[in-house]
Amino acid sequence: MKNAYRAFRQYSCQFRKNWLEYLILFGGLDIVNQFLVIPFFRWITTFVLQAGEIPFISYQNIAIILTHHPLVVMSLLIELICLMIIIYGEFMLLLTGFREIGLPEFSWRRMFRQTKETLSLLNFGSLILLLGYFLLIIPFTDIIFRTPLLAKIQVPQFIVDYLTRNAWLIGGLTLFYLLMTMIGLRLILTMPLMAYQHLRLRAAMSQSWQMTSKLRWLKFLIQIVLMTIIVGSITVVLDLLPGKLSLITAIFNLSILQLGGEVLAVWAGTIILLVVVNPLTNISELATTPEHPSRGLLTSFMLVFLVIALATLANNTFYMMGTGIKRPITISHRGVAEKNGVQNTIPAMEKTSKLKPNYIEMDLHETKDHQFVVMHDENLKDLTGVNKTPHELTLKQLTRLTARENGYHAKVASFDQYLAAAEKHHQKLLIEIKTTPHDSKQMLQNFNRRYGKRILQDHDQVHSLDYSAVTKLKKINPRLAVLYIQPYNLGNPQGVADGFSMEYSTLNQDFITQAQWQHKPVYAWTVNDTDLMKQTMYNHADGIITDNLGELNAAIKDFTGKQSYANRILNYIIVVPTSGGIEP
């Protein structure tokens, strides 16, 4: 611990003496990524998919894309290669910059020239190895290799939820993550070795493996953990704010908080990255640049800082005055709220409707006799104990079954029964149409013929994870409001859908804004945490689908209601730490 504190002081001193250079290095990469690289690749992905007449990439259509759209696949692979090269170049620039900043005669031109030279170390054969390396170091990207590009690579939360449903999956996932972490630590010096010793990828990986043998990787892990705890504790302490604020003071304090937070993030990133690269460069013992940067560099930095500060002040003024903050549409997922009944059953819907959600989301499957039953799962065993699919039983057989969940029991309902009960309580529905390979060819036509007029009269909406079902239903009845359930966000909003239900962990403000420009609402699912609810509202999502409707109502009241400026700042502090996956 004493050695960690000594290193912390040493690296903090290094940052203080070269703060401007570190800010420009980190800040410049962030600006280029956020405003150039990420938007460009999103546009390219959207363009390629549009050219191939593919609205979205999903697990449902990935096989069709691979077999029927070779040009699209080739274009996306070329895009992936270009993206890896850019990420590699950014890593090299960051690492080269750290070494150059510690030299007596620091030169930005020499730093870029040497970074360019490291690009020659990469060849086509090493791209697969490079992709694997990036996947291995993802656990350390937010702590050590801080780049918005790699931060975009994440597993959607609904997949994580699926993988943690039972002890075997949790155990397997834990072992896999520990193995990935250990291998990542053994290879953590690969990029620094390529940057500082100009080794090729294979040689650098081999040398990193040797240098971290005999539990020397454990030393890296301990130092990284200790440094993270120290800088994290200091950051938390610096987030304390006064209780009562006037509007002008509040705007100023929030702006200082934001800009200061960026400086703190750069400081923390600098210290932790120095832990990794110092054994290779001995940066902490090198002479440092003068404490007073050149006038030209300082002027350029101040101009950029002024533009960012003015934009921040303008944005914070609107936020503190409550401008643009609106109440999102509230949607109860599967008709339950805080586990008040059995999902997709009438008793649960009737209790949940008393909490006044804008919509109750529920699920439909086609039955053996081409009727519609209210059920989410493709197998009835978990809820009813019957190891059958809805398609194997008639509606009469299904409605005789009793579903059990959350300590409650209720009869499985037909859609006619559920719809009638919802109309009785004047409750609008968000109807998810589940599709399987066993559905009849006339399934959507039957659905529209039986329920289309009632859905329009009740102002209900329909959505589906099957994009072909969305397009077909829009052709059958263009008046219906049909949304597409999108499990992962890769491009810009497009297609014939009237809106989007998107898994929250990959949803970002850019997608929401572009969809709203097209007058298409965006609902985030399934958002069950108060902080995530506020984060989603901060990003102006039109609706929130949740299992915890009471908690959502409380979060909306706290976030959108009349509140002190101090409370608005507090809400912002709560939102910001978790917004990495949502901000563009």
From TrEMBL:
CDD domains: GDPD_memb_like. It comes from the Bacteria. One of its GO terms (molecular function) is phosphoric diester hydrolase activity. GO terms for biological process: lipid metabolic process. This is Glycerophosphodiester phosphodiesterase. PANTHER family: GLYCEROPHOSPHORYL DIESTER PHOSPHODIESTERASE, PHOSPHODIESTERASE. It holds the Pfam family GDPD.
